[in-house]
């Protein structure tokens, strides 16, 4: 599913225009990004939790040359589904 498909689905379910559905989706995405940058965690009860976690610096290997390389530390966003979402997917 693409973003355009999701906008169509939101517009149909909420009985609004595609333009207003896209604005709402964009506002939601921007809000989630801001919250994760500022607080590092967002919980949507029944849906799941978005958490920013850090990965430590580590040593890896270049697959072509087999030489060791340093993979830098990074922050990643992880999603943990909530109970209701887990049960509905089963």
From TrEMBL:
InterPro entries registered for this protein in UniProt: Hist_DNA-bd, Histone-like_DNA-bd_CS, IHF-like_DNA-bd_dom_sf
UniProt xrefs under SMART domains: BHL (SM00411)
Pfam families: Bac_DNA_binding (PF00216)
Residue ranges the record marks as coiled coil: none
UniProt keyword annotation of DNA-binding present: yes
SUPFAM superfamilies in alphabetical order: IHF-like DNA-binding proteins
Protein's UniProt keywords contain DNA-binding: yes
Membrane-crossing residue ranges in chain numbering: none
Keywords linked to the UniProt accession: DNA condensation, DNA-binding
GO molecular function, one term: DNA binding
GO biological process, one term: chromosome condensation
Family affiliation: Belongs to the bacterial histone-like protein family.
Protein name: DNA-binding protein HU-beta
Organism the protein comes from: Desulfovibrio litoralis DSM 11393
